[in-house]
Amino acid sequence: MREKVYPVSLSRKDRDSTAFLYERLSRDDNMDGESYSIGNQKKLLAKVAKEKGFTNLIHFSDDGVSGVTMERPGYKAMIAELMKGHAAAVFVKDMSRLGRNYIEVGKLTEEFFPDNDIRLVAVSDSVDTAEGENELTPIRNLFNEWYARDISKKRRISNKIKGNAGEPMGQPPYGYLKDPDDPKRWIKEPEAAAVVYRIGALTLDGLGTDQIASVLSNERILTPTFYWHERGIKRAGKLPDRDPCSWNSSTVIKILSLQEYCGDVINFKTYSKSYKNKKRIPNDKDNMVVFKDVHEAIWPREMWEKIQQKRAQVCRRVQRGGERNMFAGILKCSDCGAVMGYHFNQKNHDIEYFNCSNNNRSRKTCETTHYVRVDFLEQAVLGEIRRLTRFASQHENEFVKIVMGNSQQTVIDKRQAKQKELNALIARDKELDNLFERLYEDNIIGKITDDRFLKMSQKYEKEQRELAELLRVVKDEVAKMGDKAMTTDTFISTVRQYTRARKLTPRMLNELVDFIEVYHAEKVDGIWEQKLKIHFNCVGAIEIPEVLALPQPEVTIKTRRGVFVSYAPAGIAI
What we know:
Elements: H1 12-16, E1 18-25, H2 38-51, E2 56-63, H3 73-83, E3 89-92, H4 95-98, H5 102-115, E4 119-122, E5 127-128, H6 137-164, E6 176-179, E7 182-188, H7 190-204, H8 209-218, H9 224-230, H10 249-256, E8 265-267, E9 270-271, E10 281-282, E11 289-291, H11 301-312, E12 331-333, E13 340-344, E14 352-356, E15 372-373, H12 374-394, H13 396-444, H14 450-481, H15 488-497, H16 506-512, E16 513-518, E17 522-524, E18 527-536, E19 556-560, E20 563-569
Parallel strand pairs: 1-2, 1-3, 3-4, 12-16, 18-20
Antiparallel strand pairs: 4-5, 6-7, 8-11, 9-10, 13-14, 14-15, 16-18, 17-18, 19-20
């Protein structure tokens, strides 16, 4: 960090009396002693520089920055001033303060300083270029880099041991603090944890990330960065120059993506390619280590899973005013399986509806629209949920028996279907390997030309790259299926919460419904019928025995002049 503004132009006399004093300290140097502090480096360098006749001393410092990188603010500012000819000498405590990069420091000492007539003094290493060349300097620079490499290697091994033992590798996220009695453990911070829980609840209520950010901003809730600053909690980065209560969508998205909020510790989420490159790169999920239920959860696990499901759903359009429709992402075409898109009538915006996204002008891969009105959906789904809650309260034993059976069968069916998809992808990947091998052999023996080989190999390589990404996604889905936290007990207790429901809410829909199959309306005995099949979370579609006195919901809506559509369950939909 530069501490003094230097004049734009200098006389030769001013330059000859000016020395730049550079101090650096970081944890990479493993130097916690007081003699290595920035303050003591300043005192030492100032004393030596004055003894050598320099009267105009300017300090440049980097505190907490590794010497492996040359991208240090204080160092770069010093070099910029040296290039302008603003100093005759540079003083450092030792050569490692300049850096622990053998090549870059070598260029500095062997080329830049001599070419620009700059004197270098490294006090502890007895280096002073005004007194002649020191043959040991290149060797010291090499040892300094080796030291950094050795420290990095030891730290990686230490981190690997700690990470595999379940010790959190990073700082606790917003909502948690380190336990004062055990720094390896996180505890909830009540005020911030309440904000995190509310963000999750608002998501399940159907609000988008921009809307949630707006709600928090209007209520003047401090953003995580300013919250930490106000409580004296150190975090990397500078305090932004903006309203401390101005939330943005990216912050909300970051919070919604953290699995740590359901009590887990996830280690090795990022990695660096080498000790010289400090940039953190997102790690593959296969290389992460997850420890479940280590600390107290802010979101129950089933709530976390519903939040992720909600975030993963594709909403093709939003309502007027920028709000998401609560059915967006959970309606699927019964014929082609596509997620249905939201629309509203251009002449009458109060008429909102969904139709199959594969029936639009550009695709036309689905023969019918599967048009369904939002007001019709609200009445039909609410009616079915009420019917389900009556079933649970009036015929508890039968309800539990059906739910448990459906739960097991749904998990089995989904897992088998996804495993079948995974097996097909693996088979195709192996097939591409064989095709490429045969293609190579044909090219070697001259059966196909080099140009033909190049075109075909590029085609196979492109397909295999796309296949690799798809394989990763499907493997992840298969793994998640084997670890679903929402049990039949959870579903049953959730159903009972809505026994007296009078209105369908986004929260109710998200907690109970996985997805809804929408059929194209058909005319039956002169009456238009709109069929729906509701698949519930954890248990799939439920069929209530006909012998029970639980009549189906009666929903009829006028869609246009003289045309009425009535609701009818499809197959085993409730």
